[in-house]
Every structure is written in C-alpha cells, then in structure tokens.
Amino acid sequence: MNDPTSTPAPTADPHRGLHSEQGALRGEHTGRAAQPVIKVVDLAWLEFTKPDLDRAETFAHDFGFTTAARTDDTLYLRGAMAGPHCLVIRRAPASRFIGPAFQAADAADLDRLARATGHKVRTLTEYGGGRAVDLLDPSGIPVRVVHGVTEQPARPLRQPLILNTGTTTAAARINATQRPPRKPSQVQRLGHVVLSTRVFQRALDWYLQHLGLIVSDFLYLDGQRDRGPTMAFIRCDRGSEPADHHTLAMHLGPDTGYVHSAYQVADLDTLAAGGEYLRERGYQHSWGIGRHIQGSQIFDYWRDPDRFMLEHYADGDVFDHRLEPGWAAMSASGLAQWGPPATRDFLGTTPSPRALLAAISALREENEIDRARLMGLMKALSK
By mean pLDDT, which of 4-18, 179-193, 258-272 is the weakest? Predict the structure, then answer.
C-alpha cells in the first residue's frame, strides 16, 4: 500500500537539458574573441528591397511600426522607443534582404574598424545621416556599422496591463476590467535578426572578432557535438550593462541569408491582441503564441506579403558580460517551453524544389555542409 505521507516521485521534465544551463566542455568554443576590433552596442536597422512600397507600408502599420520618413524610392520605419529607424525598405524589382546595420559605441570605433578591415569610413547622405563602414561577412551578407545617425524621439509607449496575480493580499486592479484593444501591436524597437549560413564557424568567428559580440547559447546536433556548434544566440557585450539575450542568431543551413527578425512589444496582451488584428486582415500566421527556451521570449511569428518572417516578442532575457554560453542539443521541440509545436512553415521544412536545390548546391560547394550535417539538421528539425 502506498504511504499517503510519502513524497511523490517528481514528474519528468520534457525540457530537461534544453535550457542551455550546461557549459562548454574542455576545448570547446569560448563564445567570444580575446581581442575584438570593436564592440557594437546594438542593432541599428535592417535593410530590404521590395517592389511595392505602398503594400510594405500598409503591412508595417498593421504590424505596429510607424513611418519615420518616405521618399519616392525608400521607406523608413521606426518603433516607439527613442533611437534610429529600425527598417529601411528600398524600391526594387524583387523582394530581397540586403543586410543588417549595427551601432558603434563611438566615432573612433568606425576609424578603428576601417583600418582593421581595409575599408573606408563614409558619410551617409540619406535620411538619418551619420557615418558608416560597409563590410561583407564570410557568408557574403553586407554588414554596415554606423555612428552618429539621427535618433528618433520617443513616442508615447503603450503600457503593460496591470495584472492581478493572486499572490498578494491587495489586488492591483479593483473595480476595473481588462479589455485590451484589438489593434496593431505597438512595436517598441528592433530586437534581433536571425541568419542562416553555410559557413557557420567562419561567420560566427567573424562577428565575434570584428563586432565584439559574445555568445549567450550554443546549440549542436545530437551525436555531433564533437564537430562544434551549429547555432549560436549572440548578444552585444556592454560590460556590466545588461543586453538582450541575442541581437544576432545564426545557424548552419543549406540557405544563406535572412530567416526572421524580431520586434519588442509591451506584453502578452499587446502581442495577442495585435495577432488577432493581423489575422483579421488576412496575413499569414507562421507559429505561436509560445515562450522560447533560449532567450525566454513570449513569441508570435507572422509572414508579410513578401513572405518575410517577422516576430512580435515580449519578456526576453537580458544578460551582462559575466554569463558564459550554455550548450544544448538542437531540436524542434526544444525551441519552446510551452506553445503549439513548431510549424513546417517556421522550420522551413516544407518540401519544395527550391529547398531541394539549395541542399544539392550546398553539398556540392566548399562549405561546412556535408551529408552528416545535413542529415543531422533534418533529424533535429523533426524531433
């Protein structure tokens, strides 16, 4: 007979080992460069081309951006927090991701970066001004580092709802209901961008060395940890000042380029109500709502009319320079603590001629993709 006073056996945690609390093994990647050229302090903006600026602006407003400026050929979008514009969309025949721009801490950093890379510092003559150094990462993605760009003043921020948590004797909200409006989620700021690359190790080391970024979490393929990580969540090194868990994330894959970008909103209600607003207007939902493991963000993913993926997120982790990177095995089920299973659309696993051609091309080229890596990636995305 069971003893009713005995302690029950603990319930197995399906996410045990997936929170990246395990550190590196001896000889594994440290997640930072010993002497980086500079240390950027944040993402500035992302740049795209699209054929229809009117359609792009309509989606942007529905998603929660406001227009900072617009010319005949270029659209500048911003969030509500003070800072530079966070998206630049140029008119062109095809929709394409151009690359990210990062913010340098001071003007001297641009000179130092230019000398180290053999590039020039140039003056930006378009909206926002400032100075920049234009580089190419090992994947061939243009990377701009800027300083002195005109900052947008803060707009009135939508405040998080006041919650009755049930854990205090005095309720925070009395004789008042909760009725969050179903309207666009106010984008506060650009949070991060995720890129795919066929040369993960080279690209990772390039960003750590040139931009002074540091790794928060590594993911590796199950059974292939000895070959090194295949994904990294990378943050800015601001010393003792906390920074987002990741400003840039990269993973090894047969494609090169943009995966998604993420934009901070006030809270879960803002995210959910804004998602309903997008759904009512016929936009494609990709995945969510859920809470990530690496970064802890509450997330919701959408596709814009040009098929680019964008994320609303709230309540993300922030780390200072002291925290060393964690390590975990990559898996689809390890992407969220709770929420619906990751969709094929989000994972990019829907069979298509384009995906097949990308895989064949990657296997034929000189890069970090081989048959074992490709099979390991496919297995991880099915778990």
Answer: 4-18
User: 159 CB contacts (<8 Å, ≥6 apart)?
Assistant: 266
Residue 3 contacts by C-beta under 8 Å, 6 or more apart in sequence?
Answer: none
Average per-residue pLDDT for the chain: 93
User: 36 and 212 in contact (C-beta within 8 Å)?
Assistant: yes
The yes-or-no verdict on residue 9 having pLDDT over 60 is: no
C-alpha span between 301 and 287 (Å, rounded)? 5
Quick check: bond before 289 cis, omega within 30?
yes
Distance CA 77, CA 271 (A): 19
Instruction: Quickly list H helices, the chain.
Output: 53-63, 107-117, 200-211, 268-280, 344-347, 353-364, 371-382
CA distance 210 to 194: 18
Is the pLDDT at 2 greater than 50? The verdict is: no
Assign 131 to helix, strand or coil: strand
CA 156, CA 347: separation in Å to the nearest integer?
A: 36
pLDDT on residue 19: 37
| Per-residue model confidence as pLDDT tens digits over 62-99 | 999 999 999 999 999 999 999 999 999 999 999 999 99
Taking only the tens place, the pLDDT of each residue in 44-64 is 999 999 999 999 999 999 999
d(CA 122, CA 124): 6
What are the distances in angstroms from CA 81 to CA 148, 188, 329?
A: 17, 5, 36
3-state secondary structure of 310: strand
Query: Which pLDDT tens digit goes with each residue over 147-165?
Result: 999 999 999 999 999 998 8
The pLDDT assigned to 294 comes to: 95
What are the residues whose beta carbons fall under 8 Å from the beta carbon of 175, sequence distance 6 or more?
none
Could you tell me which of 255, 49, 76 has the C-alpha nearest to residue 150? 76
* Cross-strand partners of 48: 89, 97
CA atoms within 13 A of residue 375's CA, in its CB half-sphere: 5
What is the per-residue burial (b if ≥16 Cβ within 10 Å, else e) of 280-304? eeebebbbbbbbbbbbbbbbbbbbb
8 Å CB contact between 56 and 89: yes
